[in-house]
Amino acid sequence: MTASNAAQSDTAAAQGDSAPRFGGVPVHQRLKTSAAMLERAVMDRLVEQLPVYGTLPSEHLGGDIAKQVMRGIRSVADVLRTGELPGPAEQAAIRESSARRADEGVPLEAVVGAYHLGAEECAARVFSTAEPGDLPDVLLVQRQLFAYLRLVSCAVASGYVQERQMALSDQQVALQSLLSRLIEGGSPQVAADRAGIRLPPCYLVLSITVGPHPDELAPGVNHSVAARRKLRRLRNELQRQTTGVPLSVLSGSGGLVLVPYETPAADFGRADRDRLAWLVEQLGRMCGADLLAAAVPAAPEGVAEAARLAGEVREAAEASGRGPGLYLLDDVLLEYQLSRPGPARDGLAALLGPLDGRPELLDTLRAFLTCSLDRRKAAAELQVHPNTVDYRLRKATELTGLDAARGADVLTLRAALAAHDAVRKPRPDSG
């Protein structure tokens, strides 16, 4: 045996029989002696194959990133030396490094990919020295590298996701604070600055009623899950179709949405209305439910008043039997005005007082008027026979003295229905 081979045998014995060797030299020693060369090679591959690293400041790339690359090379060497995967302290360091990358905006796939590129470069460096008789150790090194990458990938994902969840939580709090400030009134600028959002010239304030998704009505289906999926699809489509950050407070039955808009409220015109109507239709289509939305454009400082008005317009549209779609104040001027408090409203509502105990008569009147006095369409909407519609209309006429088939009474009945619904509407504090 030569002096060189004897020295290699002594070194191998000192490291233990379990450490893999290529050409009689422990693999981890080959990594350590070429660590500086490996670091440069890995850094070059990061910039070449994961371009996001090339966009980082040079001092950062040559500082913390290079430090983590060298740390990874030494970690791989330790795994090959001891046969043991990184312990809790090393895993914590990997999670912390991954969290920093998340905070810097480096995509998760690039962070995981960096560790894989480093492991590939280490493997290429040592496998090139393997000899035919080293096959058992080659297989051992492969198993150890796979186990290392599995653990590291989990640690990277854990640190990254935790940081993003914290950031998203902070962002959500800031966005909710901005939404609250907009709805309460006053200047929202401080809240917008805290959320990192540029206030748009205008918000399209939407008061929305969301109908049920078919799954919410199907027997044997978890209806709360179906409702959450419906809302998730609605929010995702709203974000996809909106330039800027939409704000919303929504439940399964509806709520309030603020859509940022670059056209000032005073310049909101027909083309803007058409675009908004399309958006409402698209949201309904994507979430699989009927949407009735009332909209009021407003500057950020006027959102509070706009939200109140949008809610009233939506209520007026619903009370008058309007179907899904977009409604502005101009669409329900009569119904809106008749729903305002006053002696005339009370008098109109009293005209339908005799029908208070007969909801089917009220529903039939509303359907008949909504269907342009077409008894067959009203019957189809109510899912009853046309003769039933005729009977109910006659009964309503007997009780109120107003005939829905008589032109002179039609306007009075429309006004009476709007006033009746407004007077019977529960107060906000009534539960």
Q: Give the H and E element order.
A: HEEHHHHHHHEHHEEHEHEHHHHHH
What's the total number of strands?
A: 7
Low-confidence stretches: 1-16, 427-431
Could you tell me how far the N terminus lies from the C terminus, measured between alpha carbons in angstroms?
94 Å
Instruction: Trace the largest sheet across and list its strands.
Output: 4-5-3-6-7
Question: Structural class, judged by helices and strands?
Answer: alpha+beta
What's the architecture of the largest domain in CATH terms?
A: Orthogonal Bundle
Our estimate of the beta-strand percent is 5-15%
On the 0-100 scale, what is the average pLDDT?
87
Rounded Rg: 35 Å
Please give the CATH class of the largest domain: Mainly Alpha
Number of domains: 3
Strand count, sense and barrel status of the largest sheet are: 5 strands, mixed
CATH topology of the largest domain: Globin-like
